[in-house]
TrEMBL record:
<dbReference type="InterPro" id="IPR050793">
    <property type="entry name" value="CMP-NeuNAc_synthase"/>
</dbReference>
<dbReference type="GO" id="GO:0008781">
    <property type="term" value="F:N-acylneuraminate cytidylyltransferase activity"/>
</dbReference>
<dbReference type="InterPro" id="IPR029044">
    <property type="entry name" value="Nucleotide-diphossugar_trans"/>
</dbReference>
<dbReference type="InterPro" id="IPR020039">
    <property type="entry name" value="PseF"/>
</dbReference>
<protein>
    <submittedName>
        <fullName>Pseudaminic acid cytidylyltransferase</fullName>
        <ecNumber>2.7.7.81</ecNumber>
    </submittedName>
</protein>
<keyword id="KW-0808">Transferase</keyword>
<dbReference type="InterPro" id="IPR003329">
    <property type="entry name" value="Cytidylyl_trans"/>
</dbReference>
<dbReference type="Pfam" id="PF02348">
    <property type="entry name" value="CTP_transf_3"/>
</dbReference>
<keyword id="KW-0548">Nucleotidyltransferase</keyword>
C-alpha cells in the first residue's frame, strides 16, 4: 500500500478508492455480491484496487451488512455505513461520494484524489487504474470510455409507430466521415477532490480509451452471461 502521510489535524492525504455498493439492486438481486464465475463480482474491483498500490484506503460505501462482510473478506474497509437517504433508487453516485467525503471529515481524514470504482466492473485492472491516475498530473479527472459500436449519427427514433432518422442530414454520409463518439465505460472515475462540485466530469477530464472487449454493461442476466463469456475469452488469451 502507499505509505500514509500526515498533516495538521491528523488529516490523511493521498488517494481514496470508493466502491459504492448498495444492497437494493432489483433487476439482478444481490448483484454486487453475486458470484461472477469463481467469486463475488465485487471482489474483482477490490482486488484490482489493492493490487494497484495507489490507495491509502480502499473502502466500500454500503447500507448492507452482508455486502460489508464480503467486502471485508476481500480486503476492503467499511469505516461507516451508508445513510438510508443515499441508499434508495434516486441517490446518485455524486451524492454517495459527497457523503463519504463528509464522513471521513468527521474522522479528521481527507484525501487529495478519489477513485470511484464500481462494484460490477470485473474487467478493471490495476494497470488501467494506474493509467487513469497518471492523467491527474495535468488534468482534474480521468474516465475510461469506449467507442459506440454503431454510428449514433444514424440513430432512429419512433414516431407514431414509424421509424425516422434522428438526424436525417447524416443518412447518406459515409461512416468514415462521421465523427467518432464515445460513451462512459461504467468502471471508474478518477477525480481530484477539490474538483468535485456538481459533477464528476469537470473541466479538464482526460479519456482513457478502452477496447470493446474490456467493457460490458451489466444490468440484466443476459448482460451478466455475456460479461462472463467475454471475461473467459480475455483470460484465455492472456494465458496462451
Amino acid at each position: 500500500m502507499v505509505s500514509k502521510q500526515r498533516i495538521a489535524n491528523n488529516e490523511q492525504r493521498g488517494n481514496l478508492c470508493i466502491i459504492p455498493a448498495r444492497g437494493g439492486s432489483k433487476r439482478i438481486p444481490r448483484k454486487n455480491i453475486k458470484d461472477f464465475l469463481v467469486k463475488p463480482i465485487i471482489a474483482y474491483s477490490i482486488e484490482a484496487a489493492l493490487k494497484s498500490n495507489l490507495f491509502e484506503e480502499v473502502m466500500i460505501s454500503t447500507d448492507d451488512e452482508e455486502i460489508a462482510k464480503v467486502a471485508k473478506a476481500y480486503g476492503a474497509k467499511v469505516p461507516f455505513m451508508r445513510s438510508k437517504e443515499n441508499a434508495d433508487d434516486y441517490a446518485t453516485t455524486l451524492d454517495v461520494v459527497k457523503e463519504v467525503i463528509a464522513s471521513y471529515k468527521d474522522l479528521a481524514m481527507a484525501f487529495d484524489n478519489i477513485c470511484i470504482l464500481y462494484p460490477t466492473a470485473p474487467f478493471v485492472t490495476a494497470a488501467r487504474l494506474k493509467e487513469g491516475y497518471d492523467h491527474l498530473d495535468t488534468n482534474n479527472a480521468a474516465i475510461p470510455v469506449t467507442e459506440f459500436s454503431f454510428p449514433v449519427w444514424r440513430a432512429f427514433k419512433i414516431e407514431a409507430e414509424q421509424l425516422a432518422y434522428q438526424w436525417p442530414k447524416h443518412e447518406k454520409r459515409r461512416s468514415q466521415d462521421l465523427e467518432t463518439l464515445y460513451h462512459d465505460a461504467g468502471q471508474w472515475y478518477w477525480i481530484k477532490t477539490d474538483s468535485i462540485q456538481d459533477t464528476l466530469v469537470p473541466k479538464k477530464t482526460a479519456p482513457v480509451v478502452l477496447n470493446s472487449m474490456e467493457v460490458q454493461d451489466i444490468d440484466t442476466i443476459e448482460d451478466w452471461e455475456l460479461a462472463e463469456l467475454k471475461f473467459q475469452k480475455m483470460f484465455s488469451k492472456q494465458e496462451s
